[in-house]
């Protein structure tokens, strides 16, 4: 099928979800949550993050699932844009519903792939990174590793001390306004005993292939 949400870099699973499958069968899946995206047929934000995920997942030879967030979650200046919850109140209001939807999209992709994904990584950039951090800190989604790119913030949740540590990659740009909150997320997770890699690059804001390349290597233990 075709949809305005999916560019030429990726395939359409349904009207609000894109995916990438490597040529050879894989048991590994990347679930990637985008930053805020305008509700237009074409946009720089959408074209960029979908190409970044397609290229990096292709090099890693893993499948990728790119679900779309909801309208109204991108903050007051961008009410008509697609986004994800970026703080604790938004997580509590929308988190469970969005996790359920992501799970349904994963199941649909597994039907297309003809196999269950045994290893799953959850990552995101910008607004998606903040939501990924919330999911990880609350233990709200099963994953073998997490990644927050160009975004993400940490706060001590009641669940954190009881969660099994998972590899968590934090990547950010030296010229990005979210750098301090990204570093703070890494410090919180490291203090909780999680294996963490925090990487700074001479970049600005947004999804970048270098973050995913480094994350895949870190998750694999390279």
Which key features would you list for this structure?
Rossmann fold, 10 strands, 222 residues, 22% strand
Structure summarized in a few sentences:
This protein has 222 residues and is of the alpha/beta class. It is built from 5 helices and 10 strands, in the order βββαβββαβαββαβα. It has helices at residues 44-60, 88-113, 127-138, 179-191, 209-220; strands at residues 11-14, 17-20, 28-33, 63-67, 70-71, 82-83, 119-125, 145-149, 167-173, 196-201.
Describe the structure.
- The chain has one domain (11-220): Rossmann fold (3-Layer(aba) Sandwich), CATH 3.40.50.1820.
- The longest helix has 26 residues, at 88-113.
- It is built from five helices and ten strands.
- The protein has helices at 44-60, 88-113, 127-138, 179-191, 209-220, and strands at 11-14, 17-20, 28-33, 63-67, 70-71, 82-83, 119-125, 145-149, 167-173, 196-201.
- Strand 3, helix 1 (44-60) and strand 4 (63-67) form a beta-alpha-beta unit.
- It has 222 residues and is α/β, with parallel strands linked by helices.
- An eight-stranded mixed beta sheet has the order 1-2-4-3-7-8-9-10, with helices on both faces. A two-stranded antiparallel sheet has the order 5-6.
- The mean pLDDT is 96.
- Helix 1 runs parallel beside helix 5 (209-220).
